[in-house]
Amino acid sequence: MCFLFVILIVIVIEVMVFLMILLHPEIIITMDHDARVLKNYWIGIENGEITYIGREKPAGGEEVIELPNRIIIPGLIDSHTHVAMTLLRGLKDDADLMDWLQNYILPMEMRLKPDDVYYGALYGIGELISSGVTTFMDMYYHEIEIAKAVVDSGVRAVLSWGSADVFFQRSPEEEFKIAKRFEQDLNALKRNKGAEDRLFYAYGPHSPYGCTRELLELFKDKSNETGTRIHIHLAETESEFKDIREKTGKTPIEYLDSIGFLSDKVMAAHVVWVAEKEFSILRERGVHVLHNPISNLKLASGIAPIPKMLENGINVALATDGPASNNRLDMFREMHVAAIIHKGFTRDPKTVPAKTVLEMATIRAAKALGLDKYIGSIEVGKKADLVVLNLRNGTQGTPLHDPYSMIVYSLDKSFVESVMINGEWVYFNGEYTKIDIEETRERVQNIRERLMREAGIT
Ligand SMILES: [Zn+2]
Fold first, then answer.
1. Which site in 209, 299, 335, 381 is 20 to 30 Å from 374, CA atoms measured?
2. pTM to 2 decimal places
């Protein structure tokens, strides 16, 4: 009996190991090194990885899915957000930044409980997934709750604790310890939950104005020592530009460079206020820029000089920023705005073309996050993070001339039919497989009512 049981176990394990999913879409946009666009090819997936791309249908395949009129693209990457801020979306729009922050956002954030952050994050992740996002990078507090929501939803994420000794009036050492504690908690969680390949850590010093020089130097030194990447807001607004110049005699970028902070481990969100001489600093240090065009427009921060960054060979990734300042977690809308805003500003229709924008949401973002070995393109050996777009979900899917142009200028998130992360369907034919979105919606609504009551905001 015992022997037979062992044989049975071995057979089950073999089947699990060799279970192959085969997808046969009309078009695959690989975003690989040669930018291949493949027609009528097969993709084979085993153990969460892409193991086959070819014209011939391979042998095997326990799950074979024919996908006519569908395009498969690599999972989109939202390189900068504060996902749990779904709870504060639309709380006070069309207001000055300081009024918005001090009188509305901060009083609410002070009252957020760990559970609130979990459900706010889960709801936001649901929104990200339905717009084709398979990886996001986040910065917030109660960040371990966001990590739990990442584990439960099946998504992939780089998470950082928002460190700001100036805002919280703590010593740099104390603030750094909190970030380290989160790193340890995150490592324990990913080991316990088997989420090693879906959870990643980055330092998160909030900004040059939210952190003292001592704290920035602590993160820089530790990053040099350990190779840990650094996620920071940089040169977002004119007031930051002026404040830092007043305090240090330098612009925000010059200031960080003067303390040796800038390197190819730095992932800087916004970078709107850039002086001409600073493009070469960003390029030479290898800084990755995370571009948030909608948030920058809505909060009236300005328009980041992305065409000049691209001309200078600076790596640019695309991002939504938090849902309180966007107000959506929708990478299709972000791609559209990124593709048109710089054309209007430079009056050059050739600038920031559609293909470059899709790169900024896939392979360039993967490079920014230091994950391009695993994600960002459809290639054998990479993780199976895939988005299926059904071109029959609306009139804009026909006729198809140029798939890059169609995705960026014509389609929207309603064309996202299914999303696979790590070889697992997390969204299939428009339905979530891991998130109970109705229950989460109700919880978010209840949290909102409680916060409003407690904060006395009417
Ligand atoms: Zn931000």
1. 335
2. 0.95
